[in-house]
Structure formats: C-alpha cells, structure tokens
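Case study 2.
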Amino acid sequence: MQRSFADKLQDYAALTIRLGINIQPGQELFLTAPVADVEFVRLLVAEAYQAGAKNVQVNFVDDIAAKSRFIYGSDEAVAYAPKWFYDGVANAMEAGAARLGVISEDPGLLSDIDPTKVSTWYGAAGVAAKRVGELVGSAAINWSLVAVPNPRWARLVFPGDSDETAVAKLWEAIFTCCRVDQPDPLQAWRDHCDNLALRRDYLNQLNLSAVCFRGPGTDLEVGLVDQRIWIGGWGTAKNGVTNAPNIPTEEIFSMPHRGRVQGTVSSTLPLSLRGQVVDKIQVEFKDGVVVRASAGEGEKTLIGLLDTDEGSRRLGEVALVPPGCAVARTGLLFTNTLYDENAACHIALGSSFAENMMGYDDLSADERLAAGSNDSRIHVDWMIGSREVEVDGILPSGERKPLMRGLDWVEAV
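Prediction:
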C-alpha cells in the first residue's frame, strides 16, 4: 500500500527522534529549527515526549530576520555574537541535554552581502560558541541534524518548477536519501548504519597511515594521526547513548594529521557556505597548510574562511563516501552540505573531532596539537570525490591499497 506524505513525514520525525537522537527517558532535548518549519517541529516534540523526554526546549530561528544584521546593523552589531546564549546551550548540554538541529537553508541568502561582514560575524560566533563546538566534536552528548525543504532551496535543486512542485520533489528526495520511502524506515536505517559500521571496522583494521585522492585537478595525500579512529554509522556519545548523528549519513571519517597533508585538490561539487555559494575550489597544501587557494565563484568568501585563524588553513576531517551511495544515486545537486557531503568524499578545513583520536581526552591542548589534532573556530566540509577520483590507502608497510574505484568500494565487507 502506498503511504501518504503525512505518513512519511511522521516516519521522518520518528526516525529523527528514535534513532537520530535516540532520546532517553528523562533526558532533555534542545531543538533548534527555522520558524517556518513549526508543523514538523510539533511532530518532533510529540515524538520526543512519547519516547520519554523530560523537557523539549525549542529555539526557533529565522534566517531572513538574521540577515537584517548585515543590512542595517552597525559595525559593532556585525562583530558581535551573544556568548551568553551559547553558554546557555553549552550548560544544557553539560547537564545532559541532547541536541537536535533542523536545518532549512537558502544557499544564496547572503549572496548580496559583503563577504567580509559575513566572515566577521561567523568569526565572532565561532569564539562565542567554542564550548558548544567542543561538546559536539567530542561526542559529549547524543546530537543529530536533519533537513527540511523550503521554496528557495527547492527551486535551486529543481529550477523551473513552481514552489509547490519543487518542494514536493525535494521532500521525496529527502525521504529517499533517509530511507523513509521504505516499508519499515527505522529498520532500514538500522540496517544501513550496521553496514556503515562494518566498513568502519574494516578501515580501522587496515590501520592506514594516509589516504590518497587522484583525479582531475587532484593529487592529494592526507596523512592521518597515529592514534586515528575511523567512525561511521552509529555513534556512541560519552553519556553512553548510541545514535545516528546526521540524517542522512553515508560517510566513514577520520582525523588528518595537521602537518601531514600534501598536494593539490579540486572541489567536485559547489559549497553552500555562510549563505553564499563557493564553486570550483582549487587548493594546494604543503606540510598540512593551505599555501594557495582559488575559486571560480565565491573566492572572497573562501579566502575569508581560510583567514579565520591559524587552524583554518589545515584539515580537521577526511571522509570517504562511495559515489554510488543513496544520496548520490538521486543525481541531484542539493547545494546543502548535509546532503552533498554524503554524496562524495570530502575534507573539512578547521577543527578536528576528538572522537577520531584514541586518548584525546587524556592529552593537554599542546599535546593534542603535537599529536596532529587541529584546533580552529571553523569546521567546513567540502566535496572532493567523484567516480573519476581514485581513492587509495597507505598501509603501515608503505604499500598502496586501492579503496575506491568508480562508484563503489573496491572490496566488499
């Protein structure tokens, strides 16, 4: 029997709460969402309370209202981010609250805003939200992200369609990528995460010292930290909760060594960055640092990102995603990082995730840097994989091992 849109939306809410967050009885949930998505938020809140949540605190946001800061705000306003707010979020997380973000981006919302202003505000926000970023990056609590369409985003994915048609098509694409279109969406997601975990275990057993990418405009070697851990599928937070951070997810990711990245790399998909689109990125790394960078579109935004701080010109993540995965099979360019990063191998400029290094919590800040971890106010993923990009691993012996060719992994697990 064909299920209705309402049925799929309810399943999407259940998937988000039951597996994406896996809210625990008696646990609080801090939920951030666009004000336009109130109907879906109501489904999430009801699902969370049915699962035993003690409290669901919703923080509604409005990107169009936020844009007024850049249009009408003073220099002081552009350079200010409310630390008191982010400290409140961090306090809730430290007290055990789970965190869920519902995103519905307009990739070109700030295309008419001076990129310097945008960079200034995001830099201030990075400082104010540092504790929050550290808690998420260390998997201190169970957290997740999901996306909801809006007309501006949908028209970018489906140009030429009416708002109603484009939004309906984008919803169906989201349901497909998240396996909500299957008879038992929650079981389908469990099976998917179990399969990702098998690939994760395989990569950890290989004990790779580096990952190499070679294709059009790309010849890059990403050296890994010595105490590396590959993560994918299920994540287990420090509070003991196993959940699925990011819905959808197709990636297995690890920690690059901040001083062991060499070569050149080109982006394979546009990047939606701070309300602006950056495309045709070309970057050269030497001893871990970006020494040359350009972009066919949005270059000023890219350079502003790289100049955020010392760590923003180094890598904090490398992720492997087969070009034949569910998100990529849609054939769509989402221009939304949550989706596009799960359609292609990618790297991230900026901070590392603590969970990708064994013994991270036992090291001082200086010892973490010495071990190869990276620290920055940013963490920005951009896509470097495609069916034309070959991916190899370097074994401890120095032998080069093929990992990915064409649309899939070389070896089954």
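The first helix runs from residue 5 to 21.
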